[in-house]
Design brief:
Largest sheet: 3 strands, antiparallel
Strand order of the largest sheet: 1-3-2
Number of domains: 1
Radius of gyration: 14 Å
Number of strands: 3
Structural class: alpha+beta
Helix content: 40-55%
Order of helices and strands: EHEEHH
């Protein structure tokens, strides 16, 4: 999970969502991680992925650097966009994996977005 600094939005419009997903796709090609689910929620994002040839720290560093550079350019701002480091938990059992995947996909409904 990634959260906007001070809870601020990190996805303000469809272009922001599309840019983050494009960045995710580009980084997936380089890092070769498996992406099982995602949810972009305005001020935060949930990703369910499995490490590939690079560890998560490098994956999130690469994605963050690319997206934040573009976001700061677009909105004529500077500085950090994401709060702290990404948060992660290992989904080591099939049942927990399924629970996490359901949580990610149900997040917009629980937030009243659909």
């Amino acid at each position: 999970m990634l959260r906007g600094i001070n809870g601020q939005p990190v996805f303000l419009d469809d272009e922001d969502n599309e840019k983050y997903l494009q960045t995710l796709k580009e980084c997936k090609a380089v890092s070769e991680f498996e992406l099982y689910g995602y949810c972009l929620m305005g001020n935060h994002a949930h990703l369910l992925l499995k490490e590939g040839k690079e560890d998560l720290a490098l994956v999130f560093k690469r994605m963050g650097a690319r997206y934040v550079f573009w976001y700061n350019w677009k909105y004529r701002r500077y500085g950090h966009l994401f709060q702290d480091r990404y948060k992660s938990e290992a989904a080591e059992s099939d049942s927990y994996f399924t629970t996490v995947l359901k949580y990610i996909h149900q997040n917009p409904k629980k937030a009243g977005l659909w």
